[in-house]
Design goal:
single chain, 203 residues, mainly beta
Amino acid sequence: RILTATVCNGAFYRLPSGRTVANTGTYLDTLRTIIGCDSIRFTVQLTAGQIVETQTRDTICRRESYILPRGRVVTQPGIYRDTLPASSGICDSVIITTIAQHPPLAVVLQVPQAVCPGGVATISANASGGNGGPYSYTWSISPSGNSSIQLPVNQNTPVTVTVTDGCTVLSGSANSTIRLSPLPVVILPSDTLVAPGSSFTIR
């Protein structure tokens, strides 16, 4: 009697006599009666199939969801293992998905130490993290969406910039204050007399 069987690689197949085998091959097996006489002889043709394992990697933004091959939704980085039935029906396919996560958004604001009254201040924002950009900038004192702006200054002016990357849910922000340089103060001796229309030198 001929039998055909299939097992996945690493699994065992039990022959009619109870003996277990695991490798591809043809096995001759005999069932015996309780008094030791031959009962039924089998020829077992065994095929050991390979488990197909696939690895994939992806990166998500913070609080973004990811759908694994079997439909499960995850939001955290990690290594996930999914088992899918093989199309041949012999062995399952294993998909190992490694999920990484983009770092949080960060922004550094650069403002001049001081600006003369009526002068023009150049303010720059340097963003990092998230998905690497391109970044969008929103300024509290300018409609510009660029990473650098120029602003006439006549008083101490607070400034805030907010950065997004179109992916990360939590935006990055930074704030500072543009400060005016103090005006020089001239103090003359009390006994200094100057005739109208004349000039003198202050040292």
